[in-house]
Records
---
Amino acid sequence: MAVILGAIADDFTGATDLCSTWVKAGLRVVQMIGLPATSDLPPDTDAVVVALKSRTIPADEAVSQSLAALEWLQALGVRQVLFKYCSTFDSTPEGNIGPVTDALLDAMGLDFTVVSPAFPANGRTIYKGNLFVGDLPLAESSMKDHPLTPMRDSSLIRLMQAQSRGRAGLVPLQTVRQGADAIRAGFDDLRKQGFRYGVPDAVEDQDMLALGRALDGMALVTGGSAVAMGLPQNLRDSGALGAAARPALPKAVGRAAVLAGSCSAATRGQIAHVAQLWPSYRVDLDHIAAGTDVATEALDWAQAQSGPILIYGSSDPEEVAENQRRYGRMQAGEMMERALAAIACGLVDRGFARLVVAGGETSGAVISALGVDRLAIGPEVSPGVPWCGAKGMGRDLALCLKSGNFGGPDMFPRALEMLDV
Ligand SMILES: Nc1ncnc2c1ncn2[C@@H]1O[C@H](COP(=O)(O)OP(=O)(O)OP(=O)(O)O)[C@@H](O)[C@H]1O
Ligand SMILES: O=C(O)[C@@H](O)C(=O)CO
């Protein structure tokens, strides 16, 4: 069977989250890191996700990388393309969700697509076009303090219109609850009225599955990982998919570490939990800025410990804001990412082979530095967070790339228990 589903993800943890959704649906999925240099894929691959690090780069660069990824996927012959962004719609007023969606629509000769970041299993729901994170509207959730993409509006209609060329219209929950045909009719109505993006309400997985059915035949789909849940069934029904596959845990031998650069409320809770259990080391941004070799310091410390360790740069919103005032928003983020990436390489050099990395940008920096070019997706630790197998710096590695906001407080030890650490 040929590769039938393709996706372009705007960050690395988001890509793994999507891969995990398709792996759970029995697909054989490969995650390519960055623009692929080769089309050499395992012969039974059903779906490929190209993981870009394009969420916070300038919009024109995000557009050109996404178009190159689209061309690569089209050359594989995929039937449907998903543009995967964050379930909390992480973006700035300039993009990059809007500009990339517009560019993909144009390149594919289309005039309409769906915009659906909903992810009910992780508490991201959409009602009357407003995105909620747990019980709070997006703009009142901890996402308002995100270091790179603070979200200060909850209306997906306004958010999308502010950064794109077209109008966004709602498919209300009453319509979604009537099932796939009604949703499709809702999209058709919007398109006829000149809307370019359809935003369907969704509060439960059942809504996402109905939406998935409605998206049968829509060549470009955009959203979070949950919008992808229902797509494999359409292809299975049409006979385009073989028997379901079962994911395997990665085999990697070596010490275990958690590296955290995410400053989300969830990650900070996970750090607080694990700091009681394991040796932990905090990377200080002021030391990095002062030119201290923090990587060597952290690695010397790591070698003196036994068992799993935690190394983190994450701070609370006040300290992040202070760091950004001092060094600039993007510069502060990049300094921390570079330090954590250098530490990751040093750890692998010293025999660490099982790494949990918290944060999408952080994961991007770490796996690029490790020279990983693809991930084999294994079983999930928690919704959207799978273990992955990879080759990095010539070694077999087990990597768990955790989206900032995902997972319960005990997610780090649970991840390692799955590998019997
Ligand atoms: N103490 C700090 N001060 C300022 N910035 C920091 C600090 N610690 C980490 N950062 C930066 O904050 C950013 C966090 O983004 P990252 O994508 O890694 O996490 P996230 O947004 O929570 O995760 P996700 O994208 O998966 O939702 C990174 O650029 C990181 O380097
Ligand atoms: O959709 C999500 O929340 C995640 O997959 C993600 O993209 C975090 O960076």
---
Amino acid sequence: MAGSYLAQQIADAAPLLTPYNIFLACVTYLAISIVGSFVRAPRYPISVPWVGHGKGWLSAFKNVFSGFSSSKAWVQTGYEKYSKSGKAFVLPSMLGAPAETVIPQSQMQWLLEQPDSVLSTAAAHYDTLQGDYSFVKPVILKDPYHEHVIHKNLARNLNAVVPELDDEIRHALDHLCGLDTEQFVKMDMLEGFMMKIIPIFTNRMLVGLPLCRNQDFLDTMLGYTMDVIRGFLLFALVPKLLHPIVGAVHSLGPKYHYWRSRKYTRPLVQKRLHDIRKKDAGDPEYKDWKEPNDFVTWSIRTAMAEGRQDELDPGRIAIRIMPLNFASIHTTAMTGQGVLIDVLSADPSVVEALREEAERIYKEEGNRWTKNGLSRMYRMDSAIRESQRHSAIALTFVSKKVMVKEGITTPEGVHLEYGTNVGCPWLPAANDPDIYEKPDEFDAFRYSREREEYETMNADEKSKVDALKLKQSGLVTTGNYHLPFGHGRHACPGRFFVAHELKMLFGHMLIHYDVRPLAERPKTMWVGRTMIPPKAVLEVRRRRV
Ligand code: HEM
């Protein structure tokens, strides 16, 4: 009965579905959505200049469309016109992405001093990464305990992580790049190489052996990572009013990938909890048992020490492995691809100088990678840092959201309403000739020349050099004008791991493989505020060492 009524309704409505009516409905919907998000968004202060088509209703419509092709140019204009004179500006909203107040570098200190209860990084990440839909359960990103665990444990456990990575890198490179000393092996640089190899290293640190080599598990982690990225791109294009509907469909992807991965991760966590509890209870069978040094152990130990019973639930820990895969995989893969593109498009002497350093240090350390040896790889350190600058992957970083109901006032006297999103310019700062000499050039050894020179000095000469300043030009040091890992107390806690991982990966690659230079540097594209990685092919051949 109900079915035939519905069929009748559909049949009656069919003649109305003309192209003109559909077009009219789309335009009306778009208009309502734009007005809706305009009304619900925080009011941006009149005193702050806007880039793009400016502020106001009509401009909002224009901004929505031209933002896709012009956001990069708008941030550049804003940086030159306002940031460099110490003034904030507003980057207009796009369909689903809110407007952002871009705070100049001169106010960075103030920005970083604000407590999380005033300016929250977690809340900004929750919004951009779609915490309601992309993380299996909203609580995972509302209370990002996994980030706290990484902040507390990763850097201090690197000594134990390095030999594990060393083992994994040998294994993965042999497997992916082969042992043939005659023929070059070709693969897509991002999808075929970086996105295949990075998940293995990441999971050696998160869940250890043997799971980090289980292809089905790795596929689910990669699938989940792509879910989050797809969500990030999709929600920026979809008007805010539609988010709950689109979100309900989108959230099925992350849930599916969790469902597929938990058959591996839950038993692992359950067993680890069991073993740790037995060990702590003094069970004689566990006298010689050593707890593995990975995220699962760090998570359990931290939750036990802090009395967080909720974070000892095996399901909860199993889910938390997923956002860390997301945080690690795509960022590291894109950074690694950037390094390969920059280095392989540079003069061949760059590859030779990097290879010489890698071979020398590897040999000095007894044909293995050590924390001490890696800390002396100044050239590789510099090439990666320089590539992060030269091939910057974001327009702004250091994102935060105003959490105080009455809003806050910046040192410039601008009042930011509750809910306002703020960030600092990165891409234009990275290319600013007042900050970096010849910023358009990829100068691989920009940061290592002075460090290498310092190493050759005698004690008297060394005493005249500001050694701390030299050290601060290292890959993991963030600064007002160096934001690829963010800055301040919420700067990326994974960067110490990344520095070791990429130095070992590229060092090992140069020692054991010939790598073909790129005939031409592939071009990078930006859509809205997002960088689209260029396509490039990696060609490697095992060297006869
Ligand atoms: C080259 C690789 C990476 C890059 C470029 C990168 C970049 C960043 C940036 C820019 C931020 C701050 C975002 C902001 O300013 O809004 C961040 C935060 C974070 N990253 Fe990374 N990341 C990388 C690798 C990793 C890895 C390997 C891990 C973990 C194992 C990780 C874990 C995190 C976490 C947990 C945060 C949030 C920190 C907080 O809010 O307190 N990242 N990352």
---
Amino acid sequence: MIPTYTVRQFKDTFISTKTKKQPFDDKVLQTVKNIMEDIRTRGDEALQEYTEKFDGYSGDKWEVTKEERKAAWKEVSPEVIESLERAAANIKSFHSKQLQQSRIMEMTDDIISGQLYRPIERAGIYVPGGKASYPSTVLMNAIPANLAGVQEIIMVTPVRGGDSIPPVLSVAADIAGVNKIYKLGGSQAVAALAYGTDKIPSVDKIVGPGNAYVAAAKSLVFGDVGIDMIAGPSEVAIIADETANSTFIAADLIAQAEHDERARSFLFTTSKELIDETLVELEKQCSELPRKDIAEVSLTNEGAIVLVDSVEEAFALVNALAPEHLEIQVENALQHLSKVKNAGSVFIGHYTPEAVGDYFAGPNHVLPTVGTARFSSGLSVDDFVKKTTYLYYSEKALRNAAPYVETLATKEELDGHARAVKVRLEL
Ligand SMILES: NC(=O)c1ccc[n+]([C@@H]2O[C@H](COP(=O)([O-])OP(=O)(O)OC[C@H]3O[C@@H](n4cnc5c(N)ncnc54)[C@H](O)[C@@H]3O)[C@@H](O)[C@H]2O)c1
Ligand SMILES: N[C@H](CO)Cc1c[nH]c[nH+]1
Ligand SMILES: [Zn+2]
């Protein structure tokens, strides 16, 4: 089911800029442009129409009430609540170490300079809900926002049939400190968060993963509000040698593939035997999978297995690919970490499946996809803070700087700038 590629074929198909996957196509972009324009002009009326059309919810009571949020706790099992709480504690512990303080860069009698760290005031978090619901994504989005000190965290997620969101999402939102939840999804929800409507407050930044419509909407609102990233289909790349276990490898490829037909699962290995065993395991494990149909389409259309000459060759391919997730399942895996140049998040050794990071361990699972790990990072506390620099100069300090400022201002033919220094020193 999953095709095998030579190194050259893999490069041409998945790494070449000519064939590189885009998070969304022109048709999706045009659809989203129309929806967003409609939300901006007609507000809640349009929001209601699109929510009915795409999510089947015709009501206009989008906010999940306090009573509904309280009632949700009775509908979720104690095991799920305990797992969410334990995961939340790990995520909180990991992300709290990302926090930075405002700091002074220079302090003399005549010059003080530094940087203030301030949280953004209102963050919108998108939690996908079309094909599956993701309480783990609620934790991953909201906990860093909360730690950063965001005053109001507003979550949107579409209903999946019926007129309410899954209770587990509401419980996760309580655990993570979400202030408001709206039953809205897709590009209409992103537009409402970006521009506000009578019922939906506008936010300063929108974060979180979603499908192509959500990604297109985020790309369009960027500039009017902040965004974390434009996420494409999820990916895992696994580097394995002959010490790897084909049952583990197949399970990890399937774990990514079951997310979405467009998800991408790649194996780079030095072992021909491992390839043969993995192919057999994939057939076996897929046949028992509830989301078999999605996983099989994903593996067949978007997956790849590549036989490489060496682990070094595999790292070269992976660094060019810059995958969202990288698993290193080779002998002495930890020793290879320094070879990673481009990847969203790395899982090291035979007993660190991506799944433990997706749910529980602490690092964030909202990560850069389709090669963007070359220049960007996963969601973190940094996404929810702004850095404002500041400067104090005494008269003496300005006098020392004046000749240089005036020279540069004159060179740029900005006389007004030179004068702003001169007038202070001529008094
Ligand atoms: N990177 C991560 O951290 C992470 C985590 C969880 C999920 N994901 C990914 O997020 C994605 C979730 O996608 P999803 O579809 O399940 O949920 P979603 O909530 O992102 O999208 C559902 C919404 O898409 C809109 N939509 C659907 N069809 C449309 C159409 N024809 N025209 C206009 N709008 C339309 C609807 O408004 C609907 O509410 C998957 O690709 C999944 O792999 C990523
Ligand atoms: N693997 C997803 C990110 O690519 C995150 C996730 C959520 N739930 C399960 N997995
Ligand atoms: Zn996952």
